[in-house]
Every structure is written in structure tokens, then in C-alpha cells.
């Protein structure tokens, strides 16, 4: 029997995407939001200005192409692979595509696959509660508490000790040979993510300087951008944006990161319907990751793609 290309969302399985019932914290203050905005925007602007000043010398069309190309590939590895495939089982695919998406996501250097999935499942089950691994809320009052929350949500959580129960979120992946092998080979994928743009830079220019620029822009700067954009989904998208759906937390849709994070910025939609492969639920909410999933389906490489029905969406609308 041929698998369905599209299916309606079923009830989420245990330890995959269910959200516990708890009181969501109130919205952050305007001061908190402004500090978050400044902290996120200024580093972006700094790199863009540096690229402008270096244009024609240490930065040109080849480094730009490597930066954009490696950015898109590795972010898709996170959004389509780590997130929608492995964490939420939003669609199914064959072993080869699973391995490729897992390797590309690992090149984003956000940790091994299984650990990433476990932390994200914990985030959904404990969203904006004290056990949420990367909520910007609940880190104290006043200016210092606000700064602690913003730091923790954006990247501080990445350096904290794992919860002792983390493995309990991924019993399925602990039995998955592909997931375990991809996770075990994490250092290899990180090295390849740096070597590929370096090799392309050398092959195109025929010089060690070209190789170095490939490493810098397609490797190191690209990792900075990937981290900053994807981590902004944890911080910015729990502070800035709209909440058209009831999700029991402070998740929000943010158009900037809806584009930059290839669909992940439609974060309130996602928290309302965690197992949906489609995060951009409105016609104008472009979701590049869902486009990739649909393209995979067109060539027979994705099936059982889960999306919410119209009735399900209307039932959770807040306005």
C-alpha cells in the first residue's frame, strides 16, 4: 500500500512533542524586548559592515556564495532534519535522506543529533516553565534577572549541564541505528562542514588564500550566522511577535526569523501544532523548510507529511 504524501496531524507520542499543562509566564517587559533586539541585531550588523568594508579583497563573490550555500544547507539540516524529521516525526523518508539530513544538521555545530533532539523535546514538554532548557523567562526580576534570561535563552543554555533525565526524551532514537551513527560521528561532520568550503575555495582560486577565505566565510562566519539565527528562535521568538494560536506559553511568530531561519520563526504556529511539517500556516508565511519537504515528496523521498486540518487550526485560534 502506497504511503500517503500528506496526512492530518495525529496525537503526539509520548516524549516527542506534548506540552505539559502549566501556567505560562506573562509577556516580557518592553525594556527586556528592546535589550534582546539590540543584542541580536548588533552582531548581525557588525558582520554585514565587515563584509562591506572587505568587499573586493578578503570578501568577494566566491566567499559570499560559500557563506550563503553552506548556510542554507546546514540550516536545512537543522530545520528539516534535526527538528521536523527526528524530533517531531513530521514526515517520513528513507535511510539515505535521514543520514544526509542528520550529517548536514551536525555541520551546524549545535551538538550531536540525539542530544539536540532530547533538549528540544524537553523544551516542548516544559515550554517556558522552570524545566525548559532555554526559556528567556523565569530567571529573576530586575535588570540583572532580565539579562540572565536573555543570555540563557540565546546561548547560555548551550553551556549548561544536561538534565539527568535527558535520555528519557529519546528512547526511540536510542534504538535507531542511523540516529546513533550520525550522533557518534558528530566530530567528523563538523570537520567536513569546515573542509568543504575550504576545498571549494582552494579549487576555485588555486591559492591557499582562497582556501583560507573559504574556511573563514563558508565555515566560521557561516557557523556564527547559523547559531545566531537558530538560537534567536529560542530568545526572540519567545519575546517578539504575534500569537495567533493558543499554545500555553510565550512562543510567537516572528516574520524576520520566519525568513532567516527558513520557516522556524513561525514559532507560535509550531508550538500550537508541534508535529506539523508545515510551520508557515498562513498563505503569506513563507516556510522554506516545508517547501523542501514537499519537493522531497514530489520525487518520492518523503511521505506521511503531517499538517493540521482547517478545523484543528480554527479551534486553536486566539483572534
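Q: What amino acid sequence fits the structure above?
A:
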Amino acid at each position: 500500500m502506497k504511503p500517503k504524501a500528506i496526512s492530518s496531524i495525529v496525537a503526539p507520542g509520548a516524549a516527542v512533542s506534548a506540552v505539559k499543562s502549566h501556567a505560562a509566564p506573562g509577556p516580557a517587559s518592553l525594556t527586556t524586548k528592546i535589550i534582546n533586539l539590540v543584542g541580536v541585531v548588533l552582531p548581525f550588523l557588525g558582520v554585514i559592515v565587515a563584509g562591506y568594508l572587505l568587499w573586493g579583497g578578503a570578501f568577494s563573490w566566491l566567499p559570499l556564495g560559500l557563506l550563503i550555500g553552506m548556510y542554507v544547507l546546514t540550516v536545512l539540516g537543522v530545520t528539516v532534519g534535526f527538528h521536523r524529521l527526528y524530533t517531531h516525526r513530521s514526515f517520513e523518508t528513507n535511510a539515505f535522506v535521514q543520514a544526509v539530513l542528520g550529517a548536514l544538521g551536525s555541520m551546524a555545530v549545535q551538538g550531536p543529533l540525539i542530544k539536540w533532539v532530547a533538549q528540544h523535546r524537553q523544551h516542548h514538554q516544559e515550554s517556558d516553565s522552570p524545566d525548559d532548557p532555554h526559556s528567556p523567562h523565569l530567571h529573576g526580576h530586575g535588570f540583572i534577572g532580565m539579562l540572565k534570561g536573555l543570555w540563557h535563552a540565546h546561548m547560555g543554555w548551550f553551556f549548561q549541564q544536561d538534565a539527568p533525565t535527558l535520555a528519557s526524551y529519546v528512547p526511540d532514537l536510542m534504538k535507531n541505528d542511523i540516529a546513533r551513527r550520525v550522533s557518534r560521528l558528530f566530530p567528523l561532520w563538523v570537520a567536513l562542514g569546515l573542509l568543504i568550503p575550504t576545498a571549494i575555495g582552494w579549487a576555485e582560486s588555486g591559492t591557499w588564500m582562497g582556501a583560507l577565505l573559504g574556511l573563514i566565510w563558508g565555515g566560521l562566519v557561516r557557523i556564527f550566522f547559523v547559531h545566531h539565527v537558530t538560537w534567536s528562535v529560542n530568545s526572540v521568538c519567545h519575546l517578539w511577535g504575534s500569537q495567533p494560536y493558543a499554545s500555553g506559553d510565550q512562543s510567537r511568530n516572528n516574520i524576520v526569523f520566519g525568513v532567516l531561519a527558513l520557516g522556524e520563526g513561525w514559532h507560535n504556529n509550531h508550538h500550537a501544532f508541534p508535529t506539523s511539517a508545515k510551520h508557515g500556516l498562513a498563505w503569506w508565511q513563507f516556510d522554506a523548510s516545508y517547501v523542501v519537504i514537499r519537493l522531497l515528496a514530489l520525487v518520492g523521498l518523503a511521505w506521511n507529511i503531517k499538517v493540521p486540518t482547517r478545523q484543528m487550526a480554527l479551534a486553536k485560534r486566539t483572534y
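Q: And what stands out in the fold?
A: Strands lie at 6-8, 305-307.
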